[in-house]
Amino acid sequence: MTISRRIAFATLAAPLALALSACGGGEEDGPVAALDPIEAPAGSLWTETVEITDSDGYLLGNPDAPIKLVEYASLTCPACANFSQTGERPLVEDYVSTGLVSYELRNQVHNIWDLALARLVRCSAPESFHPLSNQVWANLGQLQNQMGQSQPVLQAMGDVAEEERFVMVAQASGFLDFFASRGISNDQAVACLSDAESVIAIGDRSTEQSDELGINSTPTFILNGRVLEERSWPSLEPLLQNAGARPAEG
């Protein structure tokens, strides 16, 4: 049985644990000269350019950007929600917009709710992945309450078939209504969640990648292949600038 299946079928008796550890600064590379902005193709913007990577991450910006920032994040993680609310906008508007920095968001799965949410934010066009993830984080307090209230229902699921399990999680936790108000119909969401193999594959990739890279908490950032200790926007921005990025003018 895969780790994701163990998560999906585990007894959910313990209280929902969402807090994650913080960490300090890391060793910085020496600064390099500022790079010239790279224009997007005619009629497009880097801030609206999204592609799915081989790691099943959603890369926002110039796929050939010389400065590549990857974030491993959990959709049930308060520290990730904090970065979404404090760092995502300046990162995208000031740096991704220049074509010099790409921002790839990858899910790290911590629990059965994470699995359901990670599938639901993939249930529309790739361009919706980042906005929907930010909506989850912006409303995490409300969703946490609903997850906590769902535990008695989930504990009673027993041997429910895989194709029904994630639908029940979403129904009991209020996810279907949450995403319906954001453009994903109940029928669309149920179809996505009923494909249990695609849901479980997200968790398996999360486990494999986290083990390979030694990532054990979220958010964790990788800059040009180097795993960082920095977790906040004030500590990340200088590293982007040391790599040659500068805020967009105007």
Automatic annotation (TrEMBL):
InterPro entries: Thioredoxin-like_fold, Thioredoxin-like_sf. It comes from the Bacteria. Transmembrane segments: none annotated. Residues 1-19 form the signal peptide. Keywords: Signal. Residues 57-239 form the Thioredoxin-like fold domain. This is Thioredoxin domain-containing protein. It comes from Aurantiacibacter gilvus.
